Amino acid sequence: MSKISLKNYFNDLSVLAGAVMISFSAVFVKLAHVGPTVSAFYRMAIGGVILMAFALVTGKTSRFPFKALGLMTLTAFFFVWDLTIWHRSIFYVGPGLATILANFQVFFLAGIGFFLYRERLNLRYVISVPLALIGLGLLILPHNMVVPQPQFYLGVGLGLITALAYTAYLLSLRTLQARYTKISAFFVIAVISILTAIGIGLEMFAGGESFAIPDRQTLLALIAYGIMGQFLGWVLISKGIGKIEASRAGLILLLQPTLSFVWDILFFSRPTGITDLAGASVAIFAIYLGATSRGIR
Fold first, then answer.
1. CA-to-CA distance for 60 and 161, rounded, in angstroms?
2. CA gap 271, 293 in Å, rounded
3. Where along the chain do its domains lie?
């Protein structure tokens, strides 16, 4: 195996490992015996502190203009919105469907790119949108619920709002990185993670929520969530994502929603029939087409 092939192999493996780790995020939310906002806080607090410590140890910290802090705060605000809504969606529809819905952000990103930035959309995107709607339709048919209830459809709506919030976060993050190119991308994520934890903490304080961790299972789940979902997953993906082809990266990253759906079935006995599997497969394939439709992600 040549040196170039070996590098490509390790880049693929890095992104693959990161996607697998992040696929457990919704599982940890479900395993923790705390509310959705509390688990979001500890993910960002634990992950953010570790990210900042890693940035300090590796020398990836850098000075940045004070005005950059405003855009960082805005980016963190969108991430607060994203996480708190997504966690609520997990409680209503389960880890698998909530994660698939959150990944619909690829369609919002492409649509905004087309309408605001006049970016060209190819046939992949045109095909992906109706496919995604078909897949979603199969997943939310009444037969997919043991007892049809309004909370299920509320969870679906929250999942789609999560996709919109994540779109706003990504656009803000891209603007930040494009405007302040001399700031380490790793350091930016560390700062945003801590700002997000502060924002969620203020939301909890305003709502009278407790920061208490009730039991050992919750403690272990939250620690694993912070390390795997916010630290290791992001580090591994960011290390290899820019060095491999966009289409291959998009295909590898599809492991996140795919495995989240699998974990939902294996760990939480999600009722799953042929229609559910078909819907998940169609939706995930549509996400792949959308993610690679403009050669970026």
1. 34
2. 33
3. 3-291
